[in-house]
Design a protein that fits this description.
alpha+beta, 60s Ribosomal Protein L30, Chain: A, five-stranded mixed beta sheet
Length: about 200
């Protein structure tokens, strides 16, 4: 009699737990804002020629000022000239590596500078704003640098003269936390590289 009562209670408890057990409330899916979806790249990334040399940055936490990169970190010990092409920095839309038509004049000026001195090379530094993870922004910065490299190749610049480096979000030019600052930080910087005398 006691055994039957214990089995009956155990069965009732099992049924109660099975019907009321741990229920997880479904997490609603948040749709992307239309402005974000419109800014995502709709074109494939740069793939028209084999990837060229990529210069990976030194330990980013130890390199605070953008001018503080050791000379040995430039390709073949070349001498960097940041001022020569500083006026031709190009900027990107949020979460995009697509070069806008408004940036073509800057790219043409960079191509002309390289054509004027065939001994020079170019370092393209891809940068992002502060939003997103370190890994994602490092990848996005590299895609932006490669997009500029491909665009310059279409302007008859030998892609083997163009090196790329991504800083992700580690080298902002504006430390603000608003759209005006973020827009300045989503960029490619061009560093002209001269051979050592």
């Amino acid at each position: 009699m006691k055994t039957t009562l214990i089995y009956s209670l155990a069965f009732a408890l099992a049924v109660a737990l099975a019907t009321t057990g741990c229920r997880h409330k479904a997490t609603p899916i948040t749709p992307m804002h239309s402005a974000v979806t419109q800014s995502l790249p709709t074109e494939p990334g740069p793939t028209t020629f084999p990837p060229g040399p990529t210069i990976y940055p030194p330990d980013i936490p130890n390199v605070k000022p953008i001018t503080g990169i050791p000379e040995g970190d430039y390709p073949y010990g070349m001498v960097p000239d940041r001022a020569a092409l500083a006026a031709y920095t190009i900027h990107f839309a949020f979460d995009s590596a697509v070069i806008r038509s408004s940036e073509q004049a800057s790219l043409q000026s960079v191509a002309q500078a390289l054509a004027a001195d065939p001994n020079t090379k170019l370092l393209v530094e891809g940068n992002c704003d502060e939003r997103g993870t370190d890994e994602y922004n490092r990848s996005l910065g590299e895609r932006r640098a490669l997009a500029a490299r491909e665009a310059l190749a279409k302007l008859n610049v030998d892609p083997m003269r163009v090196f790329t480096r991504s800083y992700g979000k580690d080298m902002p030019v504006d430390s603000g936390h608003d759209e005006a600052a973020w827009a300045k930080n989503r960029r490619d910087d061009f560093v002209l590289l001269h051979p050592k005398p």
